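Researcher: Here's my situation. A collaborator sent me these components and asked whether they could plausibly form a single complex. I don't have experimental data yet, so a predicted model of the whole assembly would be a useful starting point for our discussion.
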Amino acid sequence: MGLLSCERDVFGHSPRNEFLMARHHVSPATTIVLYLVNGLLALILVSHFTLVAFSMLPANPLNHQYKYQLFRYVNPFFSQAWTLFSPNPINSNQRLLFKYDIYSRGNKHSTPWVDVVAPMTSAKKSSYWSPVQRILKHISSSTNQTSEARNKALKFVAEHDSLRNDPVKAQRFVRRVVESSPGHKALIEYSYYTYKRLMTTAKQAPRPDSVQVTYLISSQEFPRFSKRKQDYFDVRNSNYTHLSSFACALKVNKL
Amino acid sequence: MLRRTETFRNSIGLSIYRCVLAALVMKNMIFYYPMATSMFGQDAIVDYDNYVGLMNAYGLRFLIYPFHLAYAPQVFILLTFVAAFAFFFGIGRQIVGIGLWVLLLILQQRNGYILDGSDNVIQVTLPFLIFTDAYRYNTYRLGLSERFSGLTKLTQQPVVKLVWGTIGRFATLALLIQICYVYFFTALAKLQGSLWLNGTATYYTMRVDEFRQTSWNIPLTQNHYFVVLSTYFTIFWELSFAFLIWFRQTKWVVLFFGILLHVGIWVFMRIDNFSWIMIGSYALFVTDRNYQAIATFCKQWLPKRFQLRPQYQPLPEEQLVK
């Protein structure tokens, strides 16, 4: 009890009571100003958190009606998305692989598939403080965004007869949607980085006339919960799916 | 009127949170520095044009930083580090805080793909933290206030003090609500996921290669009691945080389980920054009076030579001049 009523805090400072002391001498005009300030701040607080809440709530008629206004308010200063392993957590091991077709003096040379995720995952496991997880975050965000864009395009194709009945047109449409997605652009940018790293280790690599890159997003679905006793590390217990990109030309002057 | 109740006497917690936030930003900048060109430069892993497009779309053209120039990313990283360092020591207070917030905002637009939940927490709590009473501890003055004596006089006016105190209390309340929002909305999103609802989400999060950090993850998730109980505990705890944290009777239980959850996430899944920023934010919910009680409790366990000596010690009876 003696502790609770002490005059000084743990660091030896006197508790500040200037607000309380000042309040003893306030004039009626100051009191009105204070009430106005309180009212205004309360209004701002309630409005702010109401708008932020509506921007994050699951789809409902109100946030659908005012989606543009909500987007304009929260972006970029208060944008937040607390989708931490939700609605469903990631439940498969994602890999990103690049393959380069290098054309030089009329010859074509293809590299094997280069896995960019596996070395970083190993590096993350061996170090408590590593910047690698930032790069992994970048790759997983890009691959997820690309897969989402592709799935949306495929859904659109399935829902529209003009595309569904014309495979060539549908393929062109899906390709255009994927290529315009920020995730795909980020993956292509990352492929430049991987290419440069590959070429620094390759001895006497000739200067390319043109380079095309293909990426593969591989998804390993390890045993599901009902089969949790199965050997996790035995690849025969996993299912694999792949999403392969079209060959994309890289800018030679950037290589 | 929002009065200065016990909840708002948390200047120690605010100062702790300020230091945790600044330390994490400094750590991030140390990590980014060697990879500055690859992450933020002209030929970075995210297209430079994307960044320019975003800044234009948000009407922030005046904040476009020329990341495409040689060494510009490194300069930017150093600048952010210095701002975070100053904020850690409370130098420049609100002015440095606003500067740091703007720098982080620019960095976020340049390469949003590398950011995780902790960056989002920093970005949305910093604007409130700046205006709170977070500069009372671990704060160093550079003596600049003497140069701006007019401004100092103005801030000493009772009315200004009262208004500033009111703004600080509202900012503190906003900060506390924002932390509650993090947990409440993530729980709400989880309730829409089938894996969370059927109680198996922990199995997948702990087994996925990116987050399978220890050799214990596989044997632990083979136990269905552990999987189901930990999944439902996460949802219930996150949902209840926003409501139970405001009551003295339940606050400590909520904080204890919160620390347990985040340390568990860090050990088994190595999600570090998010764990530390959230644990750091719990300091906001602990009042100055709580800290005093904790300090007194801890002091009694310290060896005598480490305990603070009283300023005045009475002379022994025999030495007194009669």
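Model: Some features of this prediction you could bring to your collaborator: The mean pLDDT of chain B is 89. The radius of gyration of chain B is 24 Å.
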